[in-house]
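Re: that chain you flagged

S.,

Sorry for the slow reply, it's been a week of failed gels. I finally had a moment to sit down with the sequence you sent. For the record, here it is as I used it:
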Amino acid sequence: MIKQPYIIIFLAMLASAMMVLVFKSPEKLTTHIDKVDLEIVIPKQFANWKIDETLLRIEPSPEVQDSLKKIYTQTLSRTYVDENGYRIILSIAYGSGFDNQLDVHRPEFCYQSQGFEVGEYNDQVVKTEFGQLPLRRMVAIKGNRIEPISYWITIGGETVSSSFQRKLLKIKRTLSGKQDSGMLVRISSIDADNHMAYKLQGDFINALLKNTDDKNRKLLLDLDEQN
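Prediction finished late last night. Pasting the structure tokens below so you have them in one place:
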């Protein structure tokens, strides 16, 4: 439960943001988006992970592709496999004005719209070599398919996980008059053992960060420099 002082602060910030929206014209809002090529940013092979070439790539329907282009500047979807045959699904969406799309396109709602039952939500802070990574974990189930999921969001270089953090950040960005670029990174695996799935997903995240250069790592997430 959120304590009363936090509710008061949140309501005060919300009121301020609404005043900004009333008195600031849309033309005065600045948009910043970096030029990014996700195919280059994300290595195709790193540590003991490589793209699974045995799987046929299924492209979204033209309607879905048009919808994605309206929301995101770029998307990337890959399945990686390790030497033991374990598969990790990596999906990334990147775009401008990203914070305005989060309430609709977060994995919770995307999976539900595809007929999955989604539950076991858990906001965690995962330790990496480069700092603490806040992310959300959940499990999506459809028939015999059980898919543990980890994801995080960056907006304007700040990494967030919980809905409350996202709302506070959105208000702060509104007050500053910025509409920054953002990224959603989702990692999942088909595995009935949630504990094992999250462990391997954590290993995957650490391996990806270690094998990404400083600039691209900063793009993926902005971590608190602490161990």
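What I noticed first: The longest helix spans residues 4-23.

Talk soon,
D.
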